[in-house]
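Before the break, one more example. Copy the sequence into your notebook; we will annotate it together after we see the structure.
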Amino acid sequence: MFNIAPDHAIGLYFGLLALPLALIAIRLRPARHLVPGTVLAASVLMAMAGAIHLGLIGTHREETITALLFLIILTVYLTKSQTQTKPIAAPNPPVAGERILRSE
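Here is what the structure looks like once it is written out:
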């Protein structure tokens, strides 16, 4: 039921190895207190997904286009996992009409 091709197992190992590294990277970021925990969890999962694709690049060296796509996906996931911890923007101030309606 849960069979995996041997050449793809390396991707899972890379992902599991990336988990503690991603957690350490999140702990070292000063912006971690400014975003919800779900955003931090998504950052960790994106870093793990990037690591999985890094592991798959080596097993697909003969397939140049596939390896290149894995490299692109790796870059996007790792970049997104680090930029996802930016502070949340302040909400827009209420418009003048909303202030009138709220005061009634």
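The chain has one domain: 7-87. Residues 26 and 35 are 11 Å apart (CA to CA). Try to locate both features in your own notes.
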